[in-house]
Amino acid sequence: MQHGIVTFLTDYGIDGPTLATAVEERGLDALFLTEHTHIPTSLKTRWPGGEDLPRHYSHTFDPFVALAAMAAVTDRIALGTAVSLVLQHHPIGLAKTVASVDHLADGRFELGVGPGWNREEMANHGVDPRTRTARMLEHIAAMRAIWENDEAEFHGTFVDFDPIWSWPKPVRMPPVLIGGEGPTVLDRVLSHGDAWLPRRFAPEEIDVLAARIAELRSRAADAGRGHIPVTMYGGDPDRKALDSYAGAGVDRVLFSLPAAGPETVLPGLDEIADLVA
Q1: Residues 86-112 pLDDT 10s
Q2: Which of 110, 114, 164, 211 lies at a CB distance of 3.0 to 4.6 Å from 179, suitable for a disulfide?
Q3: Closest CA to 60 of 81, 83, 36
Q4: Rounded-to-integer distance, Cα 136 and Cα 166, Å
Q5: How far apart, in whole angstroms, are the C-alpha atoms of residue 190 and residue 166?
Q6: Given this model, what pLDDT does residue 255 score?
Q7: 140: helix, coil or strand?
Q8: pLDDT of residue 250 exceeding 90
Q9: Cα–Cα distance, 83 to 114 (Å, whole number)
Q10: Cβ distance 112 to 81 under 8 Å?
């Protein structure tokens, strides 16, 4: 099982190149960043994590800009989003951004995606929250068309364009990791994804996780597909927990780091590196 980091990279915390260099130097395998373009001040949509929305949600760097800087100072680690709110981007522009970052990273980029939870944030981008999942899937399909074809066109419900030229193409097709844990998420992984990106399952839920991974891979085999990787977001930094994730079929676990300065983040990285060594 591989081990990586996921974090909210902020303007008041550790800088991206320093963090990326530290992750690679400690022998970890991946570094993923979150995304929010903004946070509406109304806070009408309840944050799923509790009553008070943490400060770091409104202070995050653009993940693609930050990952491009990280690509320049690393050679080995996977770099990705967990998750990008792709429905809040136009797919023509985002397809070029992703391909550009993948080129700078020499094929190490991975696109973790999710529909998001903040309805006002979506609305500010002109997105009807009621169609967010369908729009997300269509944006993924449109971007794949651009990456895979010299002359790409797409005609859908939310995205429509006649043949276009758009380079660079990715060094490799960026793996699309579908985020979520809901009852239909495996359908989306199989229809539009290359991997599953669930959030942490509690110790008492590991059997549920194992059953869902088994279902995913059984359905993939029935569809003539190979192994579908599973990356867990926010795993517990605990040896017993890691053993249980591996036993359930998880391929990679991402440990969350706080949105803090190097005096806090780097010792936390050291602890994680020691745990997985």
Answers
A1: 999 999 999 999 999 999 999 999 999
A2: 114
A3: 36
A4: 21
A5: 27
A6: 98
A7: helix
A8: yes
A9: 6
A10: yes
